[in-house]
Amino acid sequence: MNKISMTPGALLILAMLTACSTAPKSTTMLERTRQQYQMAQNDPRIVKLAPLEMRQADDAMVLANNAAHNNQSNEEIDQFAYIASKKIDIANETARQKSAENRIANAGKERDEMRLEQRTQEVNREKAKTSDAVFLAQLADANTQQAQQKVDLLSAELADMKAKNTDRGLVITLGDLLFGTNDARLNPDGMHELQRLATVLQAHPQQTILIEGHTDSTGGVAYNLQLSERRANAVSSALQLMGVQKSRIATYGYGEQFPLVDNSTAENRQMNRRVEIILSDDAGHIIHRY
Amino acid sequence: MLNAQFKFSPWLELVLTTTSFVVVSAIVFNLTGCISLQTPATADVAVSTAEVNSAATVGGAEYAPAEMRSARAKLVQANAAMAAHDYQAASDYAAQAQADAKLAQTKVSSTKAQQAAAALQEDIQVLREELNRVNSNK
Asked: Using CA atoms, how far apart are residues A37 and B47, in angstroms rounded to an integer?
């Protein structure tokens, strides 16, 4: 009793000390919650995307701070701090949700745009295919027409030369009358005929020719073969003299192998004695007899 | 007469009256105190129970298992406090359970939204690759 009454000053100091140390009263949980709150406040995403939830967290934080300020019990402070902490969590989670929802909105738009792009490309490809096909068809058509026109032109030019349009192409037949009898040399009529052919050939430089010599069955096979070759060569030489390049001319003597008609009459034999000139297509191709 | 039979001295009467008043008022105060805390505590626990159940319905166990466990534990404690007539504690536990349940609900919708966003993003990635592939094959 005596001892206690002797230390009122010490008691006072102790009371003041505890008052000082507990004046900014807090708990571990409150401190943690304050830090959590600070972080949330500094997170622009939360402030922007979860303003309502953040206000509720603000209110809860105020309650917790007030409890500490009013020196309420640790349990009471922790109670408010716990609620505040959860409200901050909710604000945080809401911000994440909103952010995801924004991504969904944007992604949905992006996906639709890409689908549209894909569809557009498909359509364009189809269109391109179609127009390609149309173009190719037109081109083919134009080529055919052009080719036809050329053939027509050639035919017209060679018409006076009695050019015949056969399976092998245009064929000009130089009759026996254009050559000397049993002679490989062309007579003036033959030269005249060849001159017209040479003019046509110069106008169509892509065409090549095959000159075939033919005879009737009179005389020996070897002689006829030789004669047919000589006549073919004579025509070739004449054309070269008239300006047709040698590289465009091929010659062949067939002798009596390919008569036009049977050799029973003089008239027929005269028809079989001939030189045929076969004109190539535009690419220079000639269909040979064998 | 009754009054005549039990006649106390004026002093004693005063003391008795005062005492009974104090006792009665204390009892009344206590009762009203109990009732004033019991009613809101009952409501708090009911609301929290509803929140927890609602969180469970939307998939809390799958998407926010920790929050759900915490909420249920708090509910158990709230109910125990109710049974012990500790209504303040019951209200506190109920409030905590409710906060947990609300967080669980938010986590559920947040996680679902994030999963949907990721799925869409993947969709777009596939589409983009497809577009690039088609374009490069042109």
From this structure: 26
Q: What is the DSSP letter of B6?
A: T
Residue ranges per domain, chain B?
A: 38-136
Chosen from A61, A97, A127 to mutate, greatest number of chain B CBs within 10 A: A97
- Which DSSP state fits A276? E
The pLDDT confidence band at residue B35, using thresholds 50, 70 and 90, is: low
Please give the interface size between A and B, counted as residue pairs whose CB atoms are below 8 Å apart. 73
**SS3 of residue A250 by DSSP:** strand
- Tell me the C-alpha distance between B97 and B114, whole Å: 25
Q: What kind and span of H or E run contains A212? A: strand A209-214
Indicate the angle between helix axes A188-203 and A74-159, nearest 10 degrees. Answer: 170
**Cβ–Cβ gap A104/B120 under 8 Å:** yes
Burial class (CB in 10 A: 0-12, 13-18, 19+), B40: middle
Q: What ipTM does the predicted assembly reach?
A: 0.72
Which class is B38-136 in CATH?
mainly alpha
Cα within 13 Å of Cα(A19), Cβ side: 6
- CA–CA distance, A57 with A263 (Å, rounded to integer): 122
Reported pTM: 0.51
Nearest Cα residue to A273 out of A226, A230, A229, A213 = A213
Contact A49/A93 with Cβ under 8 angstroms?
A: no
What average pLDDT does the segment A168-184 reach?
79
Q: Which of A194, A210, A211 is closest to A158 using CA atoms?
A: A194
The residues near A28 (Cβ < 8 Å, ≥ 6 apart) are: none
